[in-house]
Design a protein that fits this description.
α9 links the parallel β4 and β5. The chain has eleven helices and five strands. The chain has a five-stranded parallel beta sheet, with helices on both faces. With 215 residues, it is of the alpha/beta class. The protein is elongated and about 55 Å long. 50% of the residues lie in helices and 11% in strands. The chain has two domains: 139 residues, Rossmann fold (3-Layer(aba) Sandwich), CATH 3.40.50.1000; 61 residues, Orthogonal Bundle (DNA polymerase, domain 1), CATH 1.10.150.
Length: 215
């Protein structure tokens, strides 16, 4: 169906919108407990190098070599990676919502996300994001991270859509503000119901959202 709303493209964050965040402090805390690691030391090392990993300038093995395997461990990299990936869980109601909006309004769907390459690939494949996402402006591919406004400019260039025809759904207030500064209509995602209401205010209606609220 062709859009009748003036909106032709949805930009979406992955972590906190479609899925849980991929590798959070809480996930690292669980990893430290599970593998008997010094959490404070792991956090210090993580914060010094994770941005570089997300920008696609390190492999996951290189990141883990700096953060975990800088000394001999009683567990393998494969075991740690499996635990790390297992921290990701879907938000099925949001995935369903975006899938339905794409079909109903003929929208282009693009991800704008700060994610490392291996974690990004796992999450896309494990949760079937390719079923409805048309293209990915992931930090690991474009070597720019939010809140750098250039990642949003790249998204607009790749989508070939003017900012006024775009809605961006994001759970981090600063990133919403950066997108809005470029003229992109943005929704600060806090929960499914309020995001549905804000989408409707832009003319992107989804008749199935009542079912989710009642279930």
């Amino acid at each position: 169906m062709k859009p009748a709303t003036g909106i032709t493209c949805l930009l979406l964050d992955i972590g906190g919108v479609l899925l849980t965040d991929g590798w959070t402090h809480e996930g690292r805390k669980r990893a430290a407990a599970n593998f008997n690691l010094d959490l404070a030391e792991m956090e210090d090392r993580h914060h010094l190098t994770f941005d570089t990993y997300e920008e696609g300038k390190l492999t996951l093995d290189e990141y883990l070599g700096r953060v975990v395997f800088y000394q001999e461990r009683r567990f393998t990299r494969a075991q740690f990676r499996t635990f790390m990936f297992a921290q990701s869980e879907p938000h099925p109601e949001m995935i369903d919502l975006v899938t339905q909006l794409k079909a109903r309004h003929g929208l282009k769907i693009a991800v704008v996300s700060n994610e490392g390459r291996e974690l990004n690939a796992y999450r896309v494949n494990e949760f079937g994001l390719d079923r409805f996402v048309d293209f990915y402006i992931s930090s690991c591919f474009v070597h720019v991270r939010k809140p750098d406004a250039d990642i949003f400019r790249l998204a607009l260039d790749i989508a070939q859509v003017p900012a006024g025809q775009v809605v961006y759904i994001e759970n981090t207030p600063m990133f919403v503000q950066v997108a809005e500064g470029l003229g992109i209509k943005s929704i600060l995602h806090t929960d499914y119901t309020s995001t549905c209401a804000q989408l409707e205010s832009f003319g992107l209606t989804n008749t199935d959202h009542v079912t989710h609220e009642d279930s």
